[in-house]
Amino acid sequence: MAVVGPHPAVADVRRAVREALADLPRGAVVLAACSGGADSTALAAALAFTAPRLGLRGGLLTVDHQLQEGSGERARAVADQGERLGLDPAEVLTVTVGTEGGPEAAAREARYAALASAADRHGAAAVLLGHTRDDQAETVLLGLARGSGPRSLSGMAARAGHYRRPFLDLPRATTVAACRALGLHPWDDPHNDDPRYTRVRVRRRVLPVLEGELGPGVAEALARTARMAREDADALDEWAGSAYRDCALSDIGGSVTLSVAELERLPDAVRRRVLRRAAIAAGAPSGALSATHVLAVDRLVTRWRGQKPADLPGGLSAARRYGTLILAKSPHHA
């Protein structure tokens, strides 16, 4: 009798997880972040199948944001499903979502803080996230709409610290098909259809229009663009790191002094990365440091007319003096 293999979608998600974990040592703990949707449910099932075959210990984390009635019960059901799949631990993380930055950003911040804390507590070598190629395409479109640079357009990294995204090369349709083939019943979060959220509008309205007008394959092309943009951004960041060391005359105690002559020799893209790095080293909050701030500092190098210092987040300022650029606490905030 011929041996029938798994459904193609099931094979795809398992292969993606296996390849994402191939470098981990035997005995390592790997946790899947699972919301209960198709993407993360397929991820949890693939981890449950793959982990023991690689000598790893697979677990599941699900976050209760407490934003909808019955969210605690649904989170518990996701954890229970993880236990049935053989994942241990299968844990509910209950968080309180703030308001800063809007509902999407606040929920994301609370979720990642909880995942990071749980990963540390369990000694996890990796936390898997279920983002797909479609999510990557949405991220690139959002970056384009904001007028972001190459780093933002590079989308989500396949690996970032403890986090790994095995499904970035798989379409969402594959995770849906895998769940169906495995007899799993994902939960459809109503927030995923709420047009108040920008990402939902991109998913439900913008991408379908692009596919209809330009033909199929737009999501795949955007994801491919993200990979190329990430390669370029990584190379520029590496160059900027070396250039920063050449330009920095001092970097002590929240004050950074750079050589203007060295800065002037750099291409725009590298120099601005150096200036951003210097501002953060001096104490500027990275999340508040915008391209506008960096351009204002850049003009002190490239368009010097004796202008006043440039103000930066965190009570800092950048001033040009005697061939140097000094980023430090503003006298008004010292």
From TrEMBL:
It comes from the Bacteria. It is an enzyme of class 6 (ligase). It holds the Pfam family ATP_bind_3. It catalyses: cytidine(34) in tRNA(Ile2) + L-lysine + ATP = lysidine(34) in tRNA(Ile2) + AMP + diphosphate + H(+). Gene3D superfamilies: 1.20.59.20, HUPs. GO terms for biological process: tRNA modification. GO terms for molecular function: ATP binding; tRNA(Ile)-lysidine synthase activity. Residues 258-325 form the tRNA(Ile)-lysidine synthase substrate-binding domain. The gene is tilS. Its EC number is 6.3.4.19. Belongs to the tRNA(Ile)-lysidine synthase family. Ligates lysine onto the cytidine present at position 34 of the AUA codon-specific tRNA(Ile) that contains the anticodon CAU, in an ATP-dependent manner. Cytidine is converted to lysidine, thus changing the amino acid specificity of the tRNA from methionine to isoleucine. ATP binds at residues 35-40. It is found in: Cytoplasm. The N-terminal region contains the highly conserved SGGXDS motif, predicted to be a P-loop motif involved in ATP binding. The lineage of its organism: Bacteria, Bacillati, Actinomycetota, Actinomycetes, Streptosporangiales. Keywords: ATP-binding, Cytoplasm, Ligase, Nucleotide-binding, tRNA processing. Its main location: cytoplasm. This is tRNA(Ile)-lysidine synthase. The keyword Nucleotide-binding applies. GO terms for cellular component: cytoplasm. Residues 30-204 form the tRNA(Ile)-lysidine/2-thiocytidine synthase N-terminal domain.
